[in-house]
Amino acid sequence: MRITSKGEYGVRAMLELAIHYGQGPISISAIAKKQEISEHYLEHLFASLRDAGLITSFRGAHGGYELARAPEEISIGDIIRVLEGPIAPMDCVAKDPVFCTRMGNCATRVLWKKLQTSMEKVLESTTLAWLYEEAKKFDAEDDSLCNASITKSNEE
Amino acid sequence: MRITSKGEYGVRAMLELAIHYGQGPISISAIAKKQEISEHYLEHLFASLRDAGLITSFRGAHGGYELARAPEEISIGDIIRVLEGPIAPMDCVAKDPVFCTRMGNCATRVLWKKLQTSMEKVLESTTLAWLYEEAKKFDAEDDSLCNASITKSNEE
DNA sequence: AACAATTCCTAGTGAAATACTAGGAATTAG
DNA sequence: CTAATTCCTAGTATTTCACTAGGAATTGTT
């Protein structure tokens, strides 16, 4: 019942894009550095997110990535579904369910469906915008302590 | 975000024990046959469940396994925790959390905690007794469906 | 005592997934 | 032209998954 590093890194990287939303593209290397993720690995994840239409890429010098939609319009579920597959504890309760001989006669399936629904509810109702607001809270706490880890500045 | 066959088989087998609760031990071979699970594999799962105190074993002829507690007293969470590990999408939000440098300054952790809580709520509140009641409903449906399909096929 | 049915235990294994790494081609701003 | 970037294909070490194998120990029955 674990999210893998794909989902973890993907969400962290997408949060970074949400923070810089509307300020032009940012490069993989910048995100990878800030979030301590392997550059090459993040490249793969971004390829999937791009193919899924969640982010837009710009090639060449001063290129990079930006969110394809506003942070309010991208749920964590959107990201997880691309990087981890359907949100479902079992294939038989996925949106496009895999057939199982028990299907119509399975008490455990009712259980997995309950679990699937509760998971989906959380992941669909949580957006990048919400996550950004949470991050700002932490940022404010940090400011009072020492330095900010999340800045909206155009450092280059 | 998937439950593996360990959790799936484990819950199905435990349901079988719940169905026979109070009627003496049943053997692995009987459960494996009924639930279409590899006998040897189920043996491993039952070893874990026994070590965790969820089931009791009886060796020798006419031996087998039975629930260590009443079906009302065993939650699906109890089973999953034994066979799949802590109920948590990320190690940093498990009950005995793995340390992470971000820990106190991580917006995504708040998200994973929300997800963890909702998953745990479902799995803790669902017991084997509940699952057994669900199974009985299907049994009742099957009876009426079976009769209906017999008469239908006779007509056709 | 012999036997059959069962759990118990240790070890092994092929396939798939995970979490990357490597290297270079294509593109674009300055 | 050059430096910075994405894009693409391939490879790889490690871990996990889902079993399988084989026999020792235990216990009810005859």
Provide an overview of this structure.
2 copies of one chain form a homodimer. By secondary structure, chain A is mainly α. Chain A has a domain at 5-85 and 128-155: Winged helix-like DNA-binding domain superfamily/Winged helix DNA-binding domain (Arc Repressor Mutant, subunit A), CATH 1.10.10.10. Chain A has 6 helices and 2 strands. The first copy, chain A, has helices at 5-19, 28-35, 39-51, 76-84, 107-125, 128-145; strands spanning 55-58, 64-67. Chain A has a two-stranded antiparallel sheet with strand order 1-2. In chain A, strand 1 and strand 2 (64-67) form a beta hairpin. In chain A, helix 1 (5-19) crosses helix 6 and helix 4 (76-84) crosses helix 5. The longest helix of chain A is centred in the last third of the chain and has 19 residues, at 107-125. The N and C termini of chain A lie far apart (40 Å). Mean pLDDT of chain A is 92; it is low at 148-156. The first copy, chain A, binds a DNA duplex (30 and 30 nucleotides) through helix 3.
Give the topology, please.
The structure is a homodimer of 156-residue chains.
Chain A: H1 5-19, H2 28-35, H3 39-51, E1 55-58, E2 64-67, H4 76-84, H5 107-125, H6 128-145
Helix pairs in contact in A: 1-4, 1-6, 4-5
The structure holds a DNA duplex (30 and 30 nucleotides).
